């Protein structure tokens, strides 16, 4: 089968993008606070975070559509934050798409190649070739003569993506580029786009609230929460050792289980309580917790993935008792939510799992996958007895299995 991948040979050599303590306020609201990072040429960086985290604001500041209150944005040796938007040569795909309603699909995609920023770079034949190749890659070549009003939402998103990727810029910014596409097309295109962008000499910022998507496409992930950079690292690093509980809540589908526990010293030894319910723990895990108690940690948050959580395992050395809250069959697996005194714990069980809502069940806590977080700050505790999978980051993680 012939590949529809678009090959670009005429792009100028890229330069690193560098942000230094960039901040932005809108009235009393601080959208970004001292954001700093470097994006190298050819690198795909996913900026992940929930709605309102500041992702789109970050993109607009780099493009020149907004002006930072503090800090500097550099592209190589150029102070980009002092350049007008039209001179920055940033290919920016907006979440709002911003297509020209009076132009057909072909003309929309070709429009940036005829703009002053691309003047003289491509002949008419080259423009046609680039546009046609991009439309084929997105499976919308048959829509070339239609106007945006005649397209579905997913088709319009692909047109906007084509219009961005067809350009010859200094930098690419993709704001939720595939969020409105169906699952099959989304999975194919994220691989195609990532492969294409890594072959270029320009950095790509991929802005998305979907952390799994960001991890799948990125060389590095920036976790942006409440306008602040919480963590920067590879997908493996962020997944294996999230810097805090705010990040842990965004990882996986469903996200990591987070359970607050109290360490209570009684006459017959150290006890571990979850909302008053005693957790059965092995000697090895108890010794790990005892070392933290000795350092003054009396209240912790333990995190463990639903993928490795098991139910009805009364023989598990580390377990909690709860009551089945919901049972959701998904075909290839069954997602079970168990309530432990108001705390919900999720487990991905085999497709044939049989369980009744309201029935009592034992939760097998996979301590080999347990992370410990400070209760007050939410910060990850890097204890010496942490699971080995968090220390050896060359080992495969379960990023894609969590999807």
Structural summary, described in words:
Helix content is 23%, strand content 31%. The chain is elongated and about 85 Å long. With 403 residues, it is an alpha+beta fold.
| Low confidence ranges | 1-12, 391-403
| Mean pLDDT figure | 89
- Helix share of residues? 10-25%
Task: Tell me the Rg in angstroms.
Answer: 25 Å
Strand order of the largest sheet: 6-7-8-3-9-10
* Number of helical stretches of at least 4 residues: 10
Question: Beta-strand percentage?
Answer: 25-35%
Measure the end-to-end span: 28 Å
The sequence of SSEs as H and E is EEEHEEEHHHEHEHEEHHEEEHEEEEEEEH
Give a quick precis of the structure:
It contains ten helices and 20 strands. With 403 residues, it is α+β, with helices and mostly antiparallel strands.
């Amino acid at each position: 089968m012939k590949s529809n991948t678009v090959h670009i040979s005429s792009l100028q050599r890229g330069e690193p993008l560098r942000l230094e303590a960039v901040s932005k306020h809108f009235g009393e609201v601080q959208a970004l606070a001292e954001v700093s990072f470097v994006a190298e040429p050819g690198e795909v960086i996913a900026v992940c975070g929930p709605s309102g985290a500041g992702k789109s604001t970050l993109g607009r500041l780099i493009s020149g559509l907004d002006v930072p209150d503090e800090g500097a944005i550099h592209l190589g040796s150029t102070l980009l934050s002092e350049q007008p938007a039209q001179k920055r040569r940033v290919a920016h795909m907006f979440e709002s798409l911003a297509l020209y309603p009076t132009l057909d699909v072909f003309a929309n995609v070709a429009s940036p190649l005829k703009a002053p920023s691309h003047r003289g770079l491509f002949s008419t034949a080259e423009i046609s070739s680039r546009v046609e190749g991009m439309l084929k890659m997105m499976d919308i070549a048959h829509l070339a003569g239609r106007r945006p009003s005649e397209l579905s939402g997913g088709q319009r998103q692909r047109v906007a993506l084509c219009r961005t990727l067809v350009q010859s810029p200094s930098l690419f910014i993709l704001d939720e580029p595939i969020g409105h596409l169906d699952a099959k097309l989304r999975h194919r295109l994220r691989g195609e786009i990532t492969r294409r962008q890594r072959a270029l000499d320009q950095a790509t910022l991929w802005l998305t609230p979907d952390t799994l998507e960001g991890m799948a496409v990125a060389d590095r992930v920036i976790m942006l929460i409440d306008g602040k950079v919480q963590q920067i690292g590879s997908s493996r690093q962020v997944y294996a050792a999230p810097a805090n509980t705010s990040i842990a809540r965004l990882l996986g589908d469903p996200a990591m289980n987070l359970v607050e526990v109290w360490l209570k010293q009684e006459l017959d030894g150290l006890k571990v309580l979850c909302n008053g319910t005693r957790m059965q723990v092995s000697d090895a895990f108890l010794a790990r917790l005892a070392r933290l108690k000795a350092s003054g940690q009396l209240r912790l948050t333990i995190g463990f993935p639903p993928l490795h959580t098991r139910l009805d395992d009364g023989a598990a050395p580390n377990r909690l008792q709860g009551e089945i809250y919901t049972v959701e069959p998904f075909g290839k697996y069954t997602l079970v939510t168990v309530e432990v005194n108001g705390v919900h714990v999720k487990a991905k069980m085999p497709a044939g799992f049989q369980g009744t809502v309201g029935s009592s069940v034992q939760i097998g806590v996979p301590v080999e996958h347990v992370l410990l977080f400070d209760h007050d700050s939410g910060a990850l505790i890097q204890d010496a007895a942490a699971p080995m999978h968090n220390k050896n980051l060359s080992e495969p993680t379960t990023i894609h299995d969590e999807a």
